Structure formats: C-alpha cells, structure tokens
Amino acid sequence: MPIEPQENIKSGIQKLPSLDYDNDHLVQTTIILSEDVLKELSMVAVEKGVSKASIIRDLLKDYLSEISEAKNKNLIENPIDDKELQELLDNSKTDWGDVATTGNNGIFENFAKNKWKFSNLNTEQFSIVCQYLKAGYEHFFDKPSVETFISYTKTLEPTDEQNELLSLYLEGKFTFGDDDKDKTVEEILEQVHGFSEK
Fold first, then answer.
1. Is 66 inside a domain boundary?
2. What pLDDT score was predicted for residue 11?
C-alpha cells in the first residue's frame, strides 16, 4: 500500500512553474559548465529571481533565433540558376577567347539581357562572378581604374557591400575561401575589416 505524504509535507511541496515554449515538449538534458561560469550564473539567477535553467533556455532560444534571422537575410529574391549563370559566364568571351566583361558579349551586357541583378546572386555565385570579372579586368588593353571598373556594375544594382568586396578582390586585398560560400557578403566584409585592423 503506497505511503501518503503527511499534510505538513504536502503543504511544503511546490509545483514547477508552467513553461510555455510554443507548446514544444521539454526534454531534460545535461550540460557541463566551468565552476566559475556556474558560480556567476547562480549569482545572476538569484538577482533576477529565476532558475539557472531558465536563463540558459532563454539565452539559447535568443541565439538560435539570431542564427535563423541570419539565414533568412541570406535568402535571395529571384535567385539565379547555377547552371544558367555558369553558361552565361562561359559564353562571355572576346574574339580572342578571353573573358569579356564589357561590350556586346561582355558579362555586364549579358546580365542586363537576362534582366539579372548582382543582388540576385548568392554568396557562392557572387564569388564565381568576381573571379570571371577579375580575369576580364586583367585582360583590358587599356586597363581602367578599379573605381571606374566598379562603376560599370551600377546598372546591375549591386549592393554597396558587393561593390566593396569586388573592389578589394580586384585590388588583390582579398581572396575568397572555401568556407565563405556559407557566409553573407556582409559577414565576409566584417571579417576582412577585422583582419585589417589587427
């Protein structure tokens, strides 16, 4: 026969507060923290009158929300098909077989014919376009300044960040890495500026 708790014990039992997390099922887990972090967390919990677990849950939820927002920012309106982009780049040639950036068969003109914008490019596509543009830029007989060359992109509505990154790339101050394709152009620029400040 089960033993019933005494009344004084019953009265001392407190129910856990209701936790509303969009009706998600709560799953118990274990985390390992350093002694210093745990001590500081305990002090904050006492000051705020909440549990340590609730602080961790809220911080984790905010962090995941920031990641989700960053991914959404990298979503492109009217995205360009990878295969079609590569075909355009490969067909943008001079009569000598070099990459053509300007002129009737240049990259800029071919983008305009397709009604494509630089802002329609995801980061990986933009890095590929930059490589072709640099190859074409290097083959100019009378090479314009980087600033003048960048001005040719105006009708293709690049973002300010794209123009800045392209400028740095043409000047040889930056090269794309394999892991850059998963970042936004803004994140890459922030990283570049961070390195230059060191």
1. yes
2. 47
